[in-house]
Amino acid sequence: MIRGLTVGMVILAAPLLAHHSFAAEYDEKKPVTLKGVVTKVEWSNPHARFYVDVKDDKGNVINWNLELASPNVLVRNGWKRNSLQVGDAVEVSGSQAKDGSNMANARAVTLSDGRKVFAGSSADGGPQP
Amino acid sequence: MRIFRVFVLLSMATAALLQGQNSPAAVTSPAGAGAVASTVPNLPPAPAPRLPDGKPDFSGIWFGGGPVGDLELGLAKGDTIPMLPSARKIMEARQSKDDPEANCLPTGIPRTAPYPWTFATAPGRLYILFEGNIHSYRQIFMDGRAHPADPNPTWYGHSVGHWEGDTLVVDTVGFNDRFWFDFRGHPHTEKLHTVERYTRKDFGTLVNEITIDDPGAYSKPFRVTFNARLMPKGEIMEYICQENNQDVSHIKGPAGRP
Predict the structure, then answer these.
(1) Does the beta-carbon distance from A19 to B234 stay under 8 Å?
(2) Taking an 8 Å Cβ-Cβ cutoff, which residues of chain A contact chain B?
(3) Which residue of B lies nearest to A97 if distances are taken between CA atoms?
(4) Of B17, B244, B253, the CB nearest to A45
(5) Cβ-contact A8, B11 below 8 angstroms
(6) In A3, B41, B93, B183, which residue has its Cα 20 to 30 A from A13's Cα atom?
(7) What is the residue extent of each domain of chain A?
(8) B63-88: buried (b, 16+ CB within 10 Å) or exposed (e) per residue?
(9) CB pairs under 8 A between A and B
């Protein structure tokens, strides 16, 4: 119930801010949806990060670096360092880094059983008012 | 429900940071504004509490109170920032990757990091403890001393404070010129002199009215106002920005809005 409510509110809420300009690092016009398996979780500042092995069209495996908010923001939203674990199958949507590297902010993270983790907690500048 | 409330508060505070705080519109968020904003206060419409000595009680965890993305959001309606051509040139040349805050360096004054902060006191001293803003602190002398004649230039400068009625007035000089006022890169020089006037308008709101005087970058003093909002159940937490900062090498383009 609480989780559902939180996710619902996320959609309505203002974007969270990071220590850097979101628009300077990520390109909203480069949305990505990535499916793969979590290979590493870094519960560290200024952003928590996780890494996902994703197969491209040719079957090559590419390891993506995905940015979340800081651990403090995640904790304040009710998440824990083990909310996402190595080996979890996930689908991630977000915006790719402007420099074209295999890096993105993670706006939504869905586990294979449908549970969503870290919802809305990406440091996502989003469209500005 | 606790999670829900905390989230609403954070969202609220973020909306206020993004939009400036001088009008009721400041509490709206870009999408579904009303639904979020109307639930926000959740705080009793109570007056600011007082300490036993009668002074306003500024304790608690605060969020905001200065510019994050854009200093202009703090201007009164119709005001503009009186930039000198030299300052405009510096601002236009700035690149986002060089923003000190993105590099885990301090915000200086009056910029705010999007993380909470709190006041701490000791006899003759007032401190501001920052969660973000690289987990640093400001020291404000409340013992009546004057600024040194030739202060060592620093990120937070040399601050002296006093009370004027219910308002805490903090006068600061002795800044270095390395920090930016916002993501846009509004600059300043070592001639910067700030006067912050903090007033706890009500239980949940701390108004910070800042006069910025820097003849090296601006043709005359100007004023911006930003509100900090109380996080009633919050605590400041550890935040060590430097431990894994991978952003800078991926940041591209001129300094801009969030």
Answers:
(1) no
(2) 2, 5-6, 9-25, 42, 44-47, 49, 65, 67, 70, 72-73, 75-78, 97-99, 101, 103, 125-129
(3) B250
(4) B244
(5) no
(6) B183
(7) 1-8+47-124
(8) bbbbbbbbbbbbbeeeeebebbeebe
(9) 164
CA distances from B69 to A19, B57, B63, B74, B214 (A): 10, 29, 15, 11, 20
Q: What is the complex's ipTM, to 2 decimals?
A: 0.79
Report residue A99 as tokens: 């420099």
A98 pLDDT higher than 80: yes
Query: What is the pTM assigned to this prediction?
Result: 0.83
d(CA B229, CA B62): 5
Domains and CATH numbers, chain B: 2-28+57-250 (2.40.128.20)
Contact residues on chain A for B114, CB-CB shorter than 8 A: 16-19
Residues whose CB falls within 8 Å of the CB of residue B104, separated by 6 or more in sequence, listed in order = A19, A46, B134, B241, B242, B245
**A13, A44, A99 ranked by CB distance to B250: nearest:** A99
* The token pair that represents A122 in the structure block: 């990406």
Burial of B111 (0-12, 13-18, 19+ CB in 10 A): buried
- Give the one of A9, A17, A65 whose C-beta lies nearest to B258's C-beta: A17
pLDDT in tens, chain B (258 residues): 444 343 334 444 444 444 333 333 222 222 222 222 222 345 667 899 999 989 899 999 999 999 999 999 999 999 999 999 999 999 999 999 999 999 999 999 999 999 999 999 999 999 999 999 999 999 999 999 999 999 999 999 999 999 999 999 999 999 999 999 999 999 999 999 999 999 999 999 999 999 999 999 999 999 999 999 999 888 999 999 999 999 999 999 999 877
d(CA B101, CA A122): 18
